[in-house]
Amino acid sequence: MNNVVIHINDTTLRDGEQAAGIAFNVEEKIAIASLLDSIGVHELEVGIPAMGHEEAESITRIAKLGLNAKLLGWNRANLSDIQASIDCGLDRVHVSVPVSDIQIAAKFKGQRQLVLDKLRDAINFACDRGLSVSVGGEDSSRADESFLLEVAQSAQEWGAFRFRFCDTVGILDPTTTYKKVSHLVSHLSIVIEMHTHDDFGMALANTLAGVKAGAISVNTTVNGIGERAGNAPLEEVVMGLKYLYDIPTGIDTKRLVEVSRLVSKATNFPVLPWKAIVGENTFAHESGIHAHGVLQNPITYEPFAPEDVGWERRLVVGKHSGRHLLLSVLEQHGITLGQAEIQSVLDAVRHQSVKTKRSLTVEELLSLVPQR
Ligand SMILES: CC(=O)SCCNC(=O)CCNC(=O)[C@H](O)C(C)(C)COP(=O)(O)OP(=O)(O)OC[C@H]1O[C@@H](n2cnc3c(N)ncnc32)[C@H](O)[C@@H]1OP(=O)(O)O
Ligand SMILES: O=C(O)CCC(=O)C(=O)O
What we know:
Layout: E1 7-10, H1 26-38, E2 43-47, H2 53-63, E3 70-76, H3 79-87, E4 92-98, H4 101-107, H5 112-128, E5 132-138, H6 145-158, E6 162-167, H7 174-187, E7 191-196, H8 203-212, E8 217-220, H9 234-244, H10 256-267, E9 284-285, H11 288-296, E10 314-315, H12 323-332, H13 339-356, H14 362-367
Parallel strand pairs: 1-2, 1-8, 2-3, 3-4, 4-5, 5-6, 6-7, 7-8, 9-10
Protein name: Homocitrate synthase
GO molecular function: homocitrate synthase activity
Function: This protein is a Fe-Mo-cofactor biosynthetic component.
């Protein structure tokens, strides 16, 4: 994996927004695009121009911002969709075609040839107008492998610069992903992009397996938002590449929490405290054994430093805390206790934590300390 450069194509503004109940307004789309650009995300799938109205307006306004990130519009294999992308000022388009027989039956009269015909027409239309064309195989994971390869090779031959492998309903595991993506990589010269869903909690693992297999572009969404169970989270992919595969992305990871907060606010959905990388508990330690370890050396219970993603470490006192953490917190407030006293404070902490069903504030803890 040495010297591999992985391209992050974030689709928060397209697949992310497709999550049921999420609808960004124009200003929110602009703010999210600008922040993602400023932390160094390489490419942004900014939306679906064919939707028209506010969607087209926000894409047009994003296109005028002069961002460093490349901008991509999502299209069906329809000439009118591609024209809508051009009208928004985009010069890079993504054309999606269904590739599994399940999808082809529902959308293209069960005719594989119609998939190829519509794709060829769409690519030709876009290329004739000077656009860069990326192609997506919707439901690649359930497609007949030889037809999937035929579509991808045809896309390459007709002028596409990239083929997106989509695990549309999130049914792959990393081993199967690796096999399927390796097969494509070995037969194509254009870039393969991973697009995974989290229906079985495999989105990150399958994205990384795809990278291991030779995909060099990946789709992400901030906080993992997206259709049904969501997509591979930007923050997890970037940190996974960095720490599990030693692949830097050039993205300013110190601002990942800031990005997560902006998107959470715009979606109106909170981030769960235990959400990997950006959840507020990711660097919080309450349990006695953990806190004791962290007080000696933080790497005992942290995979990387909180500052790396814009968090701070928090040591909180609650039901599971032990003497070492309690003594350390009290010491910071100039309080020293004897062994007998500390045990009785610990008992009181446990009782109060169960009663209030949370950890204690510092004031609550201090109120439990016997006055001298
Ligand atoms: C896996 C994915 O995430 S794919 C992306 C899905 N995203 C979205 O659907 C969000 C945005 N979508 C929309 O705003 C609307 O669905 C629009 C504007 C794209 C289309 O709206 P409508 O014209 O009302 O059609 P509707 O959504 O009901 O049906 C989809 C149509 O697209 C067709 N279609 C679906 N996929 C493709 C494709 N890849 N290429 C060409 N046509 C396609 C369907 O067969 C259907 O065609 P029909 O109207 O001739 O029967
Ligand atoms: O880009 C495509 O082809 C489809 C992408 C997608 O959202 C999916 O397959 O889940």
